[in-house]
């Protein structure tokens, strides 16, 4: 009987051990009502009740204000470190969730940590001691051909090699229920996503669980048939965390690597019955608009509105073509089986964001506590550009093609955001201060202060010499109310080369004071890094998910007197075209052929459009995984130096030396255009295998885009023969490469009186041109300022007008 159940359902022995207990489950309360004494789960006076969702609460603040063990004064490499690890079967993209004092049938009461993997497994571990899982539930059955989805099926290597459970689950502590979304491949092939409701004490499905995810929505957009869009369970990626609000479990979706057709879907399910109650699509008459937010779930306010941020996609509001909501902050109200848009904000340069893959929705939403002043209800985030947007949730700003009508905007204040900021209000020098924390890609952690409903224009503090690579991080805060604040972040920049994650802790009042880093101590590494890892802090411990295990950190029983420093692997990940370009490289030694066969995945790479101005920008690196196939007669393979064609570089080579039978190594390739237009080439492996795999490469160099503000100037009325005060035109280069601005000209009677533009630096460089109106005759005049350059849309043009009496 036990073996049959294991084979049919993929349940572990730990789960099957509770079946006797479940035989009398009919005597316990129903699923829809609390099935336990809440005071036993959350002891009165303890303050800390658990971490039930992504970033701790539905405002996504990321703060645990009931941490009494971990303090800045007591935390350092001698007193704090890795306590134990728990092995899992696949990559952990989800944030660990924590529930204290859970009674597990036949196993007693435990503080429990819950994690889910890309191999469609959910685990419950004792949060205080390493060992076998308390229970383990799998949604696959390999004997029946039911597996997680191979990444190759999605045509994307963003989540690799398997796609299963990606979104962080959510727990309802009132019913002991964990909601989790799985993704599987079945014979056919048939792809399926299912929402599961699991009992947190056993890991078994609740009555009526699971439910299969299906949906249709009216629209003529990409992929529609007969005016109807149909949810595609393969192409739609369930990236955002699940959200539980007002009895509804909300799911949101984007894509795998922008492979379409896809849309941004939001689906809602009754938490008690799993009946579908909400269906909404954000680009019904357009395309894309994925909702991913680097794993952050929807924000929820006290009135029940949902807040989400969309990525690249069609934006056309209002109808007849729309409404389509690409690159937009959305305030959504459930009702009538769908969602309605109560308010929104779309940046004035939305078309630029869309054209250059600068998703606004790469960052997660943070809803701030009520503020003094004219804007009490605020939210903020940033996208791939690193511009911070502070919005009034009661009047978000809509869309204005000339300028953004929002509370505050800090252009390029941080590195591109691929995570969720955190919030804490704490004592700094005896004064209560509100603080917001960001960890952008290729940037140092930064803290901005918040006062009177406004952010400080520059960081209140920032880390000293501790720069995070791609993708940055989602910080978490532990504190005891307004004291002992610590900002935690996981550096996962080594994920592409299977290097270790780095757990870092900073004094939350002064980020220049790094308290701990796991690379300071030999043996403290949490495991191989996984993108978007979010640390969970609970009862004196820190929980971090990796590609192979959960790592648990805490205060050590004895003080370490002689810490041994180790070299951080992040130093090897900085792309350097001049040092690593290998177009002319040749092997340095004779290699004896062997019978082994190498497999390189993917076999072809098409890079996204990449800027080429004065020089070429570097694209986001793409990982190529090389496997020494297990086959009769196979042997270890010896590698030479891989060769990339002109316009492409090898930014990291993990395939050096020997690779054993069945082993894997990783090479990272990047596109660095040398011209405008399409460039094709290859990545050639050099080795002694019976084959020498070759990966085809393709990229398109495009002219960078610059912003010109204002786009028109009216000088008003002036007496003939006079001159107006100069008006200023500002050029801003948002691309990563410099562009050359040539001599601007203005049509008479308008004159260029000053020009500071020449070579305009990338990454936010700006310059100014001053124009005056000097009519010598009366009449109405119109003309233009023409600005030639090597950017897109050259020459840039500003409309000029004025009247002379």
What can you see in these coordinates?
This protein has 805 residues and is mostly beta strands. Helix content is 4%, strand content 40%. The protein contains six helices and 63 strands. Strands 7, 8, 9, 10, 11 and 12 form a six-stranded antiparallel β-sheet that branches. It has a five-stranded mixed β-sheet with strand order 1-36-37-38-39, with no helix packed on it. Strands 15, 16, 17, 18 and 19 form a five-stranded antiparallel β-sheet that branches. Strand 36 (476-480) and strand 37 (483-491) form a beta hairpin. It is globular, with a radius of gyration of 28 Å.
Total DSSP helices: 6
Give the beta-strand count. Answer: 63
Q: Structural class, judged by helices and strands?
A: mainly beta
Beta-strand content estimate: 35-45%
**Average pLDDT for all residues:** 88
Task: Report, as a whole number of angstroms, the end-to-end distance.
Answer: 99 Å
The Cα radius of gyration reads 28 Å
Low-confidence stretches: 1-30, 33-46, 562-591
Main beta-sheet annotation: 6 strands, antiparallel
Fraction of residues in H or I helices:
under 10%
Write down the overall geometry. Answer: globular
Please outline what is shown here.
By secondary structure, the chain is mainly β. The chain starts with a helix and ends with a strand.
Layout: helices, strands, pairs:
Blueprint: H1 2-9, H2 13-16, H3 19-22, H4 38-41, E1 63-64, E2 80-87, E3 97-104, E4 108-116, E5 121-126, E6 135-138, E7 147-150, E8 162-163, E9 170-172, E10 177-186, E11 190-199, E12 211-212, E13 216-218, E14 228-230, E15 236-237, E16 243-245, E17 248-255, E18 265-270, E19 276-281, E20 299-300, E21 306-309, E22 315-316, E23 324-325, E24 329-335, E25 338-346, H5 350-355, E26 366-367, E27 378-382, E28 388-392, E29 398-399, E30 408-410, E31 422-428, E32 431-438, E33 446-451, E34 454-455, E35 461-462, E36 476-480, E37 483-491, E38 502-507, E39 510-517, E40 536-538, E41 541-545, E42 549-555, H6 577-580, E43 598-601, E44 604-606, E45 610-611, E46 622-628, E47 637-639, E48 643-644, E49 648-653, E50 657-659, E51 664-671, E52 677-684, E53 694-702, E54 706-709, E55 712-718, E56 727-733, E57 739-740, E58 745-746, E59 750-755, E60 759-760, E61 765-773, E62 779-787, E63 796-804
Parallel strand pairs: 1-36, 25-29, 44-53, 45-53, 55-63
Antiparallel strand pairs: 2-42, 3-4, 4-5, 5-6, 7-8, 7-10, 9-10, 10-11, 11-12, 13-14, 15-17, 16-17, 17-18, 18-19, 20-21, 21-24, 22-23, 24-25, 26-27, 27-28, 28-30, 31-32, 32-33, 33-34, 33-35, 36-37, 37-38, 38-39, 40-41, 41-42, 43-46, 46-51, 47-50, 48-52, 49-51, 52-53, 54-56, 56-61, 57-60, 58-62, ...
């Amino acid at each position: 009987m036990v073996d049959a159940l294991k084979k049919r359902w993929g349940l572990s022995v730990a789960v099957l051990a509770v079946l006797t207990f479940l035989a009398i489950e009919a005597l316990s309360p129903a699923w829809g009502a609390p099935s336990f004494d809440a005071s036993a789960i959350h002891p009165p006076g303890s303050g800390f009740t658990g971490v039930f969702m992504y970033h701790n609460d539905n405002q996504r603040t990321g703060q645990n204000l009931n941490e009494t063990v971990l303090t800045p004064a007591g935390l350092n490499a001698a007193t704090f470190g890795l306590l134990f690890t728990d092995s899992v079967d696949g990559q952990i993209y989800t944030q660990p969730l924590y529930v204290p004092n859970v009674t597990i049938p036949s196993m007693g009461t435990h503080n429990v940590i819950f994690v889910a993997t890309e191999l469609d497994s959910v685990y419950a571990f004792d949060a205080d001691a390493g060992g076998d899982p308390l229970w383990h539930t799998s949604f696959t059955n390999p004997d029946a051909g039911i597996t997680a989805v191979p990444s190759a099926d999605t045509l994307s290597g963003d989540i690799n090699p398997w796609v299963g459970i990606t979104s962080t689950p959510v727990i309802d502590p009132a019913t002991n229920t964990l909601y989790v979304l799985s993704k599987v491949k079945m014979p056919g092939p048939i792809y399926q996503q299912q929402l599961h409701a699991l009992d947190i004490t056993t890991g078994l499905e609740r009555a009526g669980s699971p439910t299969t995810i299906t949906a249709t929505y009216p629209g003529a957009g990409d992929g529609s048939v007969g005016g109807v869009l149909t949810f595609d369970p393969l192409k739609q990626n369930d990236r955002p965390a699940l959200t539980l609000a007002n009895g509804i479990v909300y799911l949101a979706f984007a894509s795998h690597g922008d492979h379409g057709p896809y849309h941004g879907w939001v689906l809602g399910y009754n938490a008690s019955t799993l009946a579908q109650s909400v269906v909404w699509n954000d680009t019904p008459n357009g395309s894309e608009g994925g909702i991913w937010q680097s794993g952050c779930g929807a924000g929820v306010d006290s009135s029940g509105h949902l807040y989400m941020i969309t990525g690249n996609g069609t934006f056309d509001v209002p109808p007849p073509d729309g409404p389509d909501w690409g690159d937009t902050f959305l305030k959504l109200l459930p009702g009538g089986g769908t969602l309605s848009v109560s308010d929104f904000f779309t940046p004035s340069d939305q078309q630029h964001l869309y054209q250059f893959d600068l998703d606004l929705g790469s960052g997660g939403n943070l809803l701030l506590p009520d503020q003094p002043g004219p804007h009490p209800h605020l939210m903020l985030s940033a996208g791939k550009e690193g511009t911070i947007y502070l919005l009034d949730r009661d009047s978000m700003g809509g869309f204005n093609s000339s300028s953004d009508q929002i509370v505050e905007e800090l252009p390029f204040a941080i590195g591109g955001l691929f995570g969720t900021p955190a919030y804490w209000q704490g004592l700094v020098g005896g004064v209560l201060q509100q603080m917001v924390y960001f960890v952008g890609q290729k940037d140092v952690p930064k803290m901005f202060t918040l006062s009177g409903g406004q952010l400080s224009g520059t960081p209140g503090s920032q880390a000293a010499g501790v720069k995070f690579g791609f993708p940055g991080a989602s910080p978490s805060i532990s504190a005891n109310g307004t004291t002992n604040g610590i900002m935690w972040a996981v550096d996962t920049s080594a994920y592409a080369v299977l290097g270790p994650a780095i757990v870092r802790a900073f004094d939350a009042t002064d980020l220049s004071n790094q308290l701990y880093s796991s690379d300071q101590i030999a043996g403290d590494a949490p495991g191989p890094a996984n993108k978007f890892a979010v640390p969970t802090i609970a009862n004196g411990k820190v929980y971090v998910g990796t590609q192979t295990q959960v790592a648990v950190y805490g205060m050590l029983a004895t003080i370490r007197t002689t810490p041994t420093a180790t070299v951080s692997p992040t130093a090897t990940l900085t792309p350097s075209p001049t040092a690593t370009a290998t177009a002319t490289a040749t092997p340095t030694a004779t290699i004896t052929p062997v019978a082994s066969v190498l497999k390189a995945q993917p076999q072809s790479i098409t890079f996204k459009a990449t800027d080429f101005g004065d020089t070429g920008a570097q694209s986001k690196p793409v990982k190529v995984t090389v496997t020494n196939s297990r086959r009769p007669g196979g042997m270890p393979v010896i590698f030479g130096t891989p060769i990339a064609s002109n316009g492409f570089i090898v930014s990291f080579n993990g395939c050096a030396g020997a690779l054993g039978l069945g082993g894997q190594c990783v090479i990272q390739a990047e596109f660095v255009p040398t011209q405008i237009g399409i460039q094709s080439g290859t990545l050639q492996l050099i080795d002694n295998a019976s084959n020498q795999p070759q990966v085809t490469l393709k990229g398109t160099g495009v002219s960078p885009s610059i912003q010109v503000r204002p786009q028109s100037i009216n000088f008003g009325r002036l007496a003939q023969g006079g001159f107006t005060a100069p008006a200023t035109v500002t050029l801003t280069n948002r691309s990563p490469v410099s562009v050359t601005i040539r001599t601007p000209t203005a049509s008479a009677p308008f004159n260029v009186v000053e020009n500071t533009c020449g070579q305009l630096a990338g990454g936010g460089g700006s310059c100014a041109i001053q124009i005056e109106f000097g009519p010598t005759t009366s009449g109405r005049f119109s003309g233009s300022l023409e600005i030639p350059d090597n950017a897109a849309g050259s020459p840039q043009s500003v409309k000029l007008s004025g009247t002379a009496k």
